[in-house]
Amino acid sequence: MIISAKGKYALRVMIALAARKGGRPVPLKELAAEEEIPRKFLEQIMTELAKAGLVKSVRGKNGGFLLTRPPQTYTAAEILHVTETSLAAAECSGSGECPRADVCPTLPMWRALDEAMDELLKKYTLAELSSRG
Questions:
Q1: Dmax of the chain from CA atoms?
Q2: What span, in angstroms and rounded, lies between the C-alpha atoms of 35 and 79?
Q3: pLDDT tens digits, one per residue of 24-60
Q4: Would the pTM count as exceeding 0.85?
Q5: CA 32-37-43 angle, 5° bins
Q6: Cα torsion through 18, 85, 119, 56, rounded to 10
Q7: How far is CA 57 from CA 65, 111, 116, in A?
Q8: C-alpha triplet 44, 59, 125: angle, nearest 5°
Q9: Distance separating alpha carbons of residues 35 and 51, to the nearest angstrom
Q10: The CATH number fitting domain 5-85+125-131, selected from 3.30.950.10, 1.20.120.910, 1.10.10.10, 3.50.30.10
């Protein structure tokens, strides 16, 4: 599994939002500049995060993006599941459709690795990650 730029950027921007104090919406332009993320790409990412209910978009002069919940309730796993097509270690372990599943000696290992990675990503909250910076 390789986390895409979209996934890494989504984590970065969510951590940036979690680190903000005061609860004011953060404009996309500001987030893009601070996190050094291309604005058009960040627009796509924020749209996906908003559709998933992880951020809220506020329109208007003082508009921008806000988290919808307290930072300690978000996990890295939850964010990456929104942006990544798959977090599987091997193509066959994530799809659930392996033509050799009944005879493959490695499939249980790949599935165990998938579960371990997911459990690890669930241990990291935005609150914890934002306090490291």
A1: 60
A2: 17
A3: 899 999 999 999 999 999 999 999 999 999 999 999 8
A4: yes
A5: 65
A6: 20
A7: 5, 36, 33
A8: 55
A9: 21
A10: 1.10.10.10
